[in-house]
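Mods, move this if it's the wrong board.
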Amino acid sequence: MTKIGSILAEARVEKGYTYADLEQVTKIQSRYLRAIDQNNFQELPGQFYIRAFVRQYAEAVDIDPEWLLAKYPLDDTFANETDIEGVIPTYESRSTKHRQQSRFDYVIQTSKNIFPLFLLLLFMILLIVLMVMAYLKSQSNEDLITQDPAQTETQNNGETDNNNNENDSADSENPSDSDSDSNQDDTEEATDSEDSDTENSDGPISLTTVSIDGTRGSFKTSDIKLPTKVDLKAVEGGRSWISVSIDGAVAYEGTLESGQSQSVDLPSGAKNISFSIGFTPSAEITIDGKPLELPEDYKTINTQYFDIEID
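Not the wrong board. C-alpha cells:
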C-alpha cells in the first residue's frame, strides 16, 4: 500500500532535492524529513507538528497538501491509508509563486529602466529634425535674398532698350524739334563728356571722417553728383555679403561671388548711403564711377558698417 511518506519521497527524488536542500526550503530538520519518508510519524514531536511538517513538505515538492491530507487522513495509527487512485494533483508552492512573481517584477523593472532611455532617444531625434528644418529654411531665405547679377543686368538692359524706344518714338513725332536742337545737343553732349572725363579722372571719392568706433564708421563727402549709380563687385577669388541702404531704406542685400557685380541707383535728393560688408577685403565699391576708398586702418576690418552723408 502506498503511504504519505512514499508519495512525498517520490516527489522529492523527482525534484532532485536532497534532505539538506529540503531542510533549507522547509526549515524542517533532516531527521524529521527522513521519518516522514519512512512513515515513522511517531518520531515527530506530536500530532500538530505532524500535520504542519507534512504540509510544508508537500508544498516544497509541489503537491497539494489539502488533497494529500484529505486523501490520507492522519491519525495515531495511520491504519486507514489506502492506495492512490488517479493522478496526484500538483500544488503551486510558495517557491514557485515567488519565482513567477520575480519574473514579473523583473519585466516591470526592466521596462522602467528602458523608458527614460527611449524618451531621451526620441528627444534627440526630434532635435535633429528641427535643426535640419531650420538649416534648410535659412538656406532658402539666403537664396531668395541673393539676386543673380546677370539677371539684374538683363533687366537693366531691358529698361534701357525701352527708354531708347520711347525716345525714338518722340523723335519721330517731332522731327522739326530734333533738327533744330541737334547742334545744341551735340554741344551739350561734348561738354558733358568732357566733364565726365574730368570727374572720372579725379581719382577716388574724397571722404571726411566724422567718427570711427570699432566696426562702425561715419563719413561725409561733397564729391558725389546726384543722381548716379553705386557699383558693387566681388574681386576675383573672393566672396562678400553686402547690404546697401539709401536714407534708411534697403536698396540691395545679397552675396556676391567671385567676379560678380551689382548696381544700385542713387537718386537725386539722397542724403545718406549706408553699407554693411561681410568681408571687406573682397568687396570693391565705386560711386559715380569713382572708387570708394576707406581709411587703411578701417578697411582691414573683415566685417564693418559705415555710412556716408552726402552734402
